Amino acid sequence: MNKLDILCIGTALIDSIIKGFDPNPISASGFIADSGSLNVGGEAVNEAVTAAKLGAKTGILCSLGQDAAGDMIISSLKLNGVNTDHVIRSAENPTPVTTMFVNADGTRKSITNSSHKYNFHPEQYPDIIKNSRAIILGSLFRAPFNEPEVIETVLSTAKKEGALVFADTKLPNFKVLSLKDIKESLPLIDYITPNEDEAKYYTGKTDPSDMADVFLSYGIKNVIIKLGGKGCFFKNDKQTITLKAYDIKAVDATGAGDNFVAGFASELLLGADLEAALRFANACGAICTTAVGACTAIKSRDQVANFVSNSESSLTI
Ligand SMILES: Nc1ncnc2c1ncn2[C@@H]1O[C@H](COP(=O)(O)OP(=O)(O)OP(=O)(O)O)[C@@H](O)[C@H]1O
Ligand SMILES: [Mg+2]
């Protein structure tokens, strides 16, 4: 079997998005809204779709129910060129559906339910993990990566085969883990990519460099703090790189972080040096925000590479 470039592991779900929700009822139990739509999402899906569009040979290891929501995710993954051979279809656990209410004033509420706890054990599929040049944990600290043993087994399997390990993060939902709780696994992570809020939460620090120092002190090799509209910050034990955000008109930041990570990993695997890969990732995040939806704006590697060359002057280090 040919090796995958990237295996994305973790969250796959459907977002049911109700926009323009009016909280005033029109009858005893009836409400109205401007629109309702079903959207394929979850970090592992967003990362896999983006990496595949960028040209990486990409697979996904995730668990879906044997239901219509699962079929929808599979068809979207296939349409975008993601290898779905390793998607588990569980008879017991339904595909998670997140319900999201976007009020007319733009504020939003999202509701997760017990299906988001995912009774999914990626550590039981070592052959797939071993057959990948790199793995991306969709979200460290969220199921299935909120169990220390799952994290340790998956990461040590990957590292034994010399795979690169990228870990994106999320704030906890059902189960809370601290860095200390997973200290044995942290030295197995090559790149951790929290956003600013997540980094603050897990490190207790407010300055990106201090946040990075905490992660580095646990043995994580490289730290990238994603700073939204401010760009990103990189630190390892040798160097620090700060990149300002590209100057674009953002309309929807959903999935910007996932696009960033997918872009960074795929570019490193193509042989780019660290700074070039960061620049490329910074562009992937920026481009993602220019259209509604997590996987809409990025079309190809050429598109991002052209964006990087044409936008050079608006970027300062
Ligand atoms: N308004 C913006 N303008 C330019 N670039 C942006 C903007 N917002 C995000 N980006 C780019 O996208 C990257 C990731 O965004 P962000 O920090 O929001 O990640 P995130 O919170 O993990 O996103 P998500 O979890 O929603 O996918 C940033 O580091 C930056 O490179
Ligand atoms: Mg994120």
How would you describe this structure to a colleague?
This protein is an alpha/beta fold. The chain has a single domain, classed as UDP-N-acetylmuramoyl-L-alanine:D-glutamate ligase (3-Layer(aba) Sandwich), CATH 3.40.1190. It has 9 helices and 14 strands. The protein has helices at 43-53, 68-79, 126-130, 148-160, 196-203, 208-217, 256-269, 274-288, 301-311, and strands spanning 4-9, 13-21, 35-41, 58-61, 63-65, 88-90, 97-103, 108-111, 132-140, 164-169, 191-193, 222-226, 232-235, 240-243. It has an 8-stranded mixed beta sheet with strand order 4-1-9-10-11-12-13-14, sandwiched between helices. Helix 5 packs across helix 6, helix 7 runs antiparallel to helix 8 and helix 8 crosses helix 9. The longest helix is centred in the C-terminal third of the chain and has 15 residues, at 274-288. The termini are far apart. The model has no long low-confidence stretch (mean pLDDT 94). Adenosine-5'-triphosphate binds at residues 195, 226-229, 231-232, 245-246, 248, 250, 253-258, 260, 282, 285-286, 289.
